[in-house]
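Weekly modeling sync, notes
Attendees: S.R. (lead), two postdocs, one rotation student

Agenda item 3: backlog of single-chain predictions. S.R. asked that every request posted to the team notebook include the full sequence so nobody has to chase files. The rotation student volunteered to paste the first one in as an example of the format we agreed on. Action items at the bottom.

Example entry:
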Amino acid sequence: MTCASDGTISSTAQEDTPPPGAHRLSGLVFPGFANAHSHAFHRALRGRTHHGGGTFWTWRDTMYQLAGRLDPDGYYRLARLVYAEMVLAGFTGVGEFHYLHHDRDGTRYADPNAMGAALAQAAVDAGIRLTLLDACYLTGGIGTELAGVQRRFGDGDADGWLSRVDSWRSGTPSTVLGAALHSVRAVPVEAIGPVAGWAAARKAPLHVHLSEQPAENAACQEYYGRTPTELLDEHGALGEHTTAVHATHLTTGDIGLLGDRHATACFCPSTEADLADGIGPARELRDAGAPLALGTDQHAVIDPFTEARALEHGERLRTGQRGRFSPAELLAAATEAGHAALGRPGAGRLAVGAPADLVAVDTDTVRTAGCAPEQVILAANSADVHTVVVDGRVVAREGRHEAVGEVGRQLAGQIERLWRDSREGHS
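Predicted structure, as returned to the notebook:
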């Protein structure tokens, strides 16, 4: 395999002897994985939310505490390390569902997109392809005003969101800019159309949290007389550039709508398990015509193999049947379909013209030894990744990031600093 100067694959061939100057990748080589749903700052919650049980909503209270502590500089430092952790795991692209927009009291920074720009620079410095999904977040619940730390998320109304997003100047040409509707509980019905229209006019990705919790469905049904899926479709927010994140508690009609519109469904199995969200109808969605993608969401785990395996295991637990998805289908969800949902069609393949993003996995570890190559995705984990290539350049090898260095120790220090500082808003 050879790479062109623009970082794409220019040719592939079988060779008995590597040509002079070639970089040999041993083991099994995958195309780069796509993390189709990320909230980078949630990484600081890992291993800190399991005392006393609780629900998604009590977990959210802790998340809000964390959200109140970040500024652009602190967010850059944390996100750079989180994205570096993703690279080490084999992710070469990430969709950042970004709603932490403003200062702690809700006022805009001098650069109204300072927090997004921090994420863009963090991704460049970590060597990962970023799709920034700028989220519209206007209400604290259906018919409820933003309160407390939620004020950081809001732009007042759809026009405020549009004006801020249209002023985006990231300084990082590699960033794909997309849109997000946080959820039907955070975006009033009159704002759905303008945000969806902005994305449609640019053929940009449009992502939305959909039916993650039964309480969201009940509130939507009571207020609007429709399911969240029906409401989004009624206002033009479902289409082939749409990704419905979680898509857990769906009616048969919802599944049909998502399939008919060829909207992608992004499952985040480790997060959905961690938050006790439930197990969504993945096989039914795929059979209806909705492509599937995978994300790590709140980063309880950052591992493409774990997410792919958990998608299949969830189906087995839900139905009592094995083999609901073939290894090839799981790989497609973790790679090609995920990148397409992030506005990078053609990525996630080992083919001429595709980005030269490669992930090499050892096949003789205690996890992978003896596996049939086509089933390694159901046995490996991120510890088995030994080399990651992005744009034809090695960015990580043997558990060490080429630019960032040793990631774990730095992450520990940054996260401890965030939680240790009891003064609200200092990071």
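Discussion: group reviewed the output briefly. The chain has one domain: 30-349.
Action items: rotation student to repeat for the remaining queue; S.R. to check formatting next week.
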